[in-house]
Write a structure and sequence with these properties.
heterotrimer, A: 344 residues, alpha/beta, 8-stranded mixed β-sheet, 4-stranded antiparallel β-sheet, 12 helices, globular, disordered N terminus, B: 331 residues, mainly alpha
């Protein structure tokens, strides 16, 4: 990977995640490299099942016990410098000090993200009490503060209410509040607006942008909605079948998509202003199962630019094509010569 | 909330009235009455009654009135004087007979109930956290055996083993010395040992159900999104298990408490007989067999009250436990 | 000089006499239990004993040592605690003779109309108050005549016309009982019917007066004061306190043991209760030691009869009557337990007694049951040898319902009557009785009605197992049977309404020590729970049964002892001739399992209610020694 190494707060190196199932071992994430810089919003895009959620959850180590992660996730932790998050015990004190404090995560469905047994205030305050201060009065003040910041009206009253008394949008704000109360370096947002209706969506995205500026944090934005990517993200990583196939700035991705998959994705989105009743483009075929994957490029079967004998034999790696635009495709970068080594 | 409770309590009255009528009617249903069994018992010891004496006894006990008259008098006594009637067998007021064994019954049953939950909850949580592990299977297996084996059989087996080992039959909670001299410090070890048998026997029968319920509920809750949120927040596993999952998992367990209030009052009957425990259960059985109507009727009536109260209490507890229930009540 | 020597001789003689005095005084010295001495409140034992205490001097007794507690298990019954410690005016010996007990003796006038009872001077109640003839006379005149104790005037006090006797005090140690007609068997009848003839007047006088005056509330309050129990009505109270008096704390008795007054140990309905030694007990042993030897009898209540055996085995309990099936287990146990065998008093083993209700209402069954051919057939169709082997594992022999060896009326022929095994003859007899073999291999009535013999029994009595052994014999002889066992109280209900047809292991087995003393099971109309004559009484009896009842009346009116025996034998002969009841195995003895640390338990005896069951064992003479 090229590019400045300064300001990188998170670096994933060759992350692989295997899941043990009855039929065998599912290699869902097959070697992901990624960088997130300070203040940057990185979008992680891909279809369902390509491994985006697993990748993001692996950062915090909150995947299911059945998932085994390999590789490295280096994080610039406060006070300790670069630390490999995967080397930390998933239930240990070190990772728990990072979760919620330095790296926070918000989830897709805010309605089920909170426990119905406790008030919103209690749950937000829990984060405060865990990471900031043990003084209950002070903690409550801090929590109320952040609730107001995310735009929850009547914060004092809302503090003592239960999740089932909130609307979807309000809950997502509360979730964001809970994630931000400790001013984390990195916020991982796993499809936070998918379950909300469009107007609320816009509000939440606006909020996130504002907060990012206020808090000076990075966001890893996981989504399959290309429209949101365009609005929110500085950098975009396109993921297919457990691998990043293209990674570039948002402008570059939209302006100059190189990987056939990216091209297909962009092509299949209905653009406002398109004339006529053109049929929506869709990529041939379906995502193969992560079990018994064929050799070579995962996109081979569905690719219009595939090269027989090359693409179905060798694994393409992310290669920098200049300006930080990286693609993993033989058709774009050329066939593997002396320099390219073949992945298993 | 208060209105809700008030409404429920008001409903008690007609419910209890109907129950009391049913109880009374059924108890006196078998042919004969207390005098019949009394005369028979006396005959077994060699004492003969003439028919005139028998009629006299009947009149004396008020048993020659039709059953609804007897019921009415009984109810009148309860409502106006708090007098629950007279026990023919014991020759004194019903309430004093019940009081005799009340404290011991409450103590024993309460301890057993606590034992059940103290043992089952941690095991249930452990089994959920270590699903399909050896521990999970082993503990569930023990729980199943405890439930499947009839209590009295378990009691007999334990007593037999103890007899073979020590030559003593630990029958009853108190040894003769304890009954003679009252409780003393040197008796405490033996007393605890004697308590252990009924606790084990009666306690294990209920544990399996609770273990499996808690386990299933916990597994359910652990799969929920909010545990992920909590983990992402940096909560410890313990907090996730006990603060979040357990509270939600307790819902069916608390519902189950509704019936336990009644069980605390009367205790387990068959086990009590086998182990010679001086608790309320055998008293009720004997009263029913000899048709000592007011005693039997009062005990069953109290049990009915306790079931009603217990249900109400567990409903209140559920509402406290789970805010969602509270909310729907307000609507 | 002469005067001087005389003086010295006199002085010496005087000194000698003085020296002898203590020795003479020693001869009349009594000793008491350390248990009492330690408490230090009872004073000299001599003051507590009557002038001439009764001496327990039966040949089998040895002089014992004081101390120890007897542990028993109980189901909470009244008589279970009462019979062993009962002390009546007179008592029975194991041979059936009557001997003095509380009473020192009696005189009777020539025509047996006036009895003079002599009591012992200086006797005291267990609370130290003097016991005199006043207590006896007051008991009859106030308690019995006014029926305060629920039993009223017993049969023993009624003369030939049914009128009550007149009881009068002569002096503190003497009272008379006068009858309108000669009452020859008064002393025996007294010892059977009433046993005691006294109650503590100083305790109950006021209460009894309130009852008579109708002041019920006051009477109940007094009752509560005396024994701490609040009774529901005076009838119940009178019964409990004056009839079952030994069950209540605070009521003085003449018994060797008195119910403790300590809270927690003084209720027979409680888990544990004690009977403590009576400091004023009026009997001594041959060495002058005041009886009883044992300090306390401790009762532990058990919920279940089986548990009594368990407690016996582990030594918690010292004494228990047991069935023969338990004996191997007992002998195997580590605790040293002796088994004593007493003979029973019923005719044949109660578990194998088959009673047909001769007064059954069904028109087909009544003539059938009353037909001796049918009964004979039912008797001889059973192979008694085989049956006895199966029933008792070889412990007992087959027999018939008849008096036991040694009892009045015993005859070998009777015990062996109808005991041969002859199925063919049985069938002949059935047909002679009018039954007709049906197509299903079972006999029916002549008019075609199905004949089913419905046998019932009390649940958990063992009758079900016996029936399983018996039924094949009946079936082979062509008799179809059904069996049902159910709750005791329901069976009694059915018996009282004459709804029973046939019983196995009847609630009241036939036979007792004496047909004269206790006719209940042997003469119709004298009890309410006897299966073989149902609700028959003298108005409804016919034929020999009526004759039996008439003979009983005759017996009651006859004075001469020899003539009475003659009549009794006639009554027994009627039984032998008619064989109204059947039995298949000889009476089993009563087995007593006694912990080896208990001494002076009589090795032989007879178990009968007339002898007060365990009362005959005289627990006041038992002592404990390891």
């Amino acid at each position: 990977m090229s590019g400045a190494k300064d300001d990188v707060i998170l670096r994933m190196k060759d992350l692989k995640i295997n899941i043990k199932v009855d039929e065998g071992i599912l290699t869902v994430v097959r070697g992901v490299d990624m960088e997130i810089r300070r203040g940057e919003t990185v979008g992680l895009v891909g279809e369902s099942g390509c491994g985006k959620s697993l990748t993001s959850k692996a950062i915090l180590g909150i995947n299911d016990k059945k998932c085994k992660a390999e590789g490295q996730i280096l994080f610039d932790a406060e006070g300790t410098g670069m630390v490999d998050l995967l080397s930390l015990k998933p239930r240990g004190k070190e990772i728990r000090a990072i979760r919620g404090k330095q790296i926070s995560m918000i989830f897709q469905e805010p309605m089920v993200a909170f426990s119905p047994m406790y008030t919103i205030g209690n749950q937000i305050n829990e984060a405060t009490l865990l990471h900031i201060t043990k003084d209950r009065k002070k903690a409550k003040e801090i929590s109320l503060d952040v609730m107001k910041k995310v735009g929850i009206a009547n914060a004092e009253k809302r503090y003592d209410q239960y999740p089932h008394e909130f609307s979807g949008g309000m809950l997502q704000r509360a979730l964001i509040a809970m994630a931000l109360v400790c001013s984390p370096k990195l916020l991982i947002a796993d499809e936070p607006t998918t379950a909300l209706d469009v107007t609320i969506q816009a509000q939440i995205l606006e909020l996130m942008k504002t907060l990012q500026k206020d808090f000076g944090m990075s966001i890893l934005f996981i989504t399959h909605d290309l429209g949101i990517v365009a609005r929110m993200c500085d950098t975009v990583a396109v993921m297919y079948l457990g691998r990043i196939v293209e990674c570039a700035s948002a402008v570059e991705i939209y302006g100059n998509p190189m990987h056939p998959y990216t091209q297909g994705l962009l092509g299949s989105v209905h653009k406002i202003g398109t004339k006529g009743q053109k049929r929506l483009f869709s990529i041939d075929g379906t995502v193969p199962l992560a079990l018994n994957l064929p050799k070579g490029c995962g996109f081979y079967e569905r690719c219009s630019k595939r090269i027989d004998g090359v693409c179905n034999v060798h694994d393409p790696r992310l290669t920098d094509l200049g300006d930080g635009h990286r693609v993993a495709c033989f058709a774009c970068t050329g066939c593997p010569g002396k320099e390219g080594s073949v992945h298993e | 909330m208060l209105k809700y409770v008030g409404k429920r309590v008001l409903l008690f009255i007609p419910t209890l009235l109907i129950i009391s009528v049913l109880i009374f009617f059924i108890i006196q249903l078998p042919p004969g009455d207390y005098v019949t069994s009394y005369v028979a018992a006396m005959a077994a010891e060699g004492e003969i009654f003439t028919p005139e004496q028998i009629e006299g006894l009947r009149a004396q006990f008020g048993l020659d009135d039709p059953w609804y008259v007897q019921y009415f008098n009984w109810m009148k006594g309860i409502i106006t004087r708090g007098d629950f009637g007279y026990s023919f067998e014991y020759g004194r007021g019903v309430w004093s007979v019940i009081m005799d064994r009340l404290y011991l019954t409450l103590a024993v049953s309460f301890v057993i109930l606590v034992f059940q939950y103290v043992v089952s909850l941690p095991i249930g949580i452990y089994c959920a956290n270590h699903q399909y592990s050896v521990g999970d299977y082993a503990l569930s297996f023990i729980g199943f055996i405890g439930t499947a084996t009839p209590n009295f059989l378990l009691a007999i087996i334990i007593m037999y083993i103890i007899y073979i080992r020590t030559g003593n039959v630990y029958l009853g909670l108190f040894s003769t010395e304890m009954l003679q001299n009252g409780m003393r410090w040197e008796y405490v070890p033996e007393f605890l040992g004697r308590c252990l048998i009924p606790i084990l026997v009666i306690g294990t029968s209920g544990t399996c159900g609770i273990i499996r319920t808690v386990r299933a509920q916990m597994l359910d809750e652990q799969a929920r999104q909010y545990t992920l949120t909590a983990r992402a927040k940096g909560c410890s596993e313990a907090a996730i298990t006990y603060k979040y999952c357990l509270r939600a998992a307790l819902n069916p367990v608390v519902s189950g408490l509704a019936g336990s209030l009644r069980t605390i009052f009367s205790g387990s009957t068959v086990s009590a007989i086998v182990m010679n425990l001086a608790i309320q259960g055998p008293v009720l059985l004997a009263a029913l067999k000899s048709q000592d109507m007011y005693l039997a009727g009062t005990i069953v009536l109290i049990q009915a009250v306790l079931v009603l109260v217990g249900t109400l209490l567990s409903d209140i507890a559920l509402a406290w436990l789970d805010p969602r229930i509270r909310f729907s009540e307000r609507g | 000089m002469h005067t001087y020597r005389k003086g010295v001789s006199l002085l010496l003689a005087l000194i000698l006499c003085l020296g002898l005095l203590p020795a003479m005084a020693d001869e009349a010295a009594y000793t008491e239990a350390p248990f009492l001495t330690e408490q230090g409140v009872y004073g000299d034992v001599k003051d507590r004993l009557p002038l001439e205490p009764m001496v327990e001097d039966a040949a089998y007794l040895t002089v014992g040592t004081y101390g120890g507690e007897l542990h028993r298990s109980a189901g909470g019954g009244n008589w279970d605690a009462g019979k062993p410690i009962e002390e009546g005016l007179f008592r029975f010996t194991a041979e059936g003779a009557v001997e003095p007990n509380v009473a020192k003796g009696f005189d009777v006038n020539e025509d047996a109309t006036v009895y003079t009872i002599h009591l012992r001077e200086g006797m005291k109640w267990s609370d130290g108050e003097p016991f005199t003839a006043e207590d006896c006379v007051w008991f009859f005149n106030v308690v019995c005549l006014n029926n305060i104790d629920g039993k009223g005037v017993r049969n023993c006090h009624k003369d030939g016309n049914g009128d009550p006797a007149v009881v009068e005090k002569v002096d503190d140690q003497t009272f008379t009982v006068t009858f309108g007609t000669p009452k020859v068997d008064f002393i025996e009848a007294l010892t059977v019917d009433l046993k005691w003839h006294f109650a503590p007047k100083h305790i109950f006088e006021e209460l009894a007066q309130c009852v008579i005056d109708g002041k019920n509330d006051e009477a109940l309050a007094l009752g509560k004061e005396i024994c701490g129990t609040e009774f529901s009505d005076v009838g119940k109270m009178g019964k409990e306190m004056l009839y079952y008096f030994w069950n209540y704390p605070g009521i003085p008795t003449l018994n060797p043991f008195v119910l403790s007054t300590e809270p927690g140990k003084n209720s027979i309905k409680g888990e544990y209760y004690e009977y403590v030694r009576n400091p004023y007990y009026w009997k001594v042993d041959t060495a002058g030691q005041q009886l009883p030897y044992i300090d306390k009898i401790c009762y532990l209540t058990v919920a279940n009869v089986d548990q009594q055996l368990m407690l016996l085995l582990d030594g918690t309990v010292d004494y228990q009557t047991v069935g023969m099936e338990s004996i191997p287990t007992i002998l195997e146990s580590e605790t040293a337990i002796n088994i004593y065998e007493w003979s029973g008093s019923t005719w044949g083993d109660p578990g194998t007694q088959l009673h047909f209700n001769l007064f059954v209402e069904d028109e087909h069954l009544r003539p059938l049951f009353n037909n001796p051919d049918f009964r004979q057939g039912m008797s001889i169709c059973v192979d008694r040898e085989e049956f006895a082997a199966l029933y008792s594992d070889g412990w007992l022999q087959g027999s018939q319902a008849a008096p036991q060896p040694g009892a009045l009326g015993y005859s070998e022929e009777w015990a062996a009557k109808w005991t041969e095994y002859d199925v063919a003859k049985a069938k002949e007899l059935f047909e002679a009785a009018g039954l007709v073999m049906g197509g299903d291999g079972f006999y029916d009535f002549a008019d075609g009605t199905d004949f089913v013999l419905n046998i019932v029994a009390v649940a958990d009595s063992g009758a079900a197992e016996t029936y399983k052994i018996l039924e094949p014999y009946f079936r082979a002889a062509g008799i179809k049977c059904t069996f049902k066992d159910y709750d005791r109280s329901n069976i009694d209900n059915d018996m009282m309404s004459n709804a029973i047809q046939c019983t196995l292991f009847p609630v009241t087995p036939i036979g007792d020590i004496s047909i004269v003393l206790k006719p209940n099971s042997m003469v119709p109309g004298y009890a309410t729970n006897v299966a073989w004559y149902g609700t028959m009484n003298e108005d409804t009896a016919e034929g020999d049964l009526k004759k039996l009842i008439e003979l009983k009346h005759q017996l009651d009116a006859t004075a001469d002892p020899e003539a009475r025996t003659e009549i009794a034998l006639q009554m027994l002969k009627l039984h032998e001739d008619n064989m109204w009841t059947l039995c298949y195995v000889e009476a089993s003895p009563t087995y007593h399992a006694v912990n080896a640390r208990i001494h002076n338990f009589p090795e032989t005896g007879v178990w009968s209610d007339i002898y007060r069951d365990m009362g005959l064992a005289h627990c006041q003479c038992w002592y404990i020694a390891e």
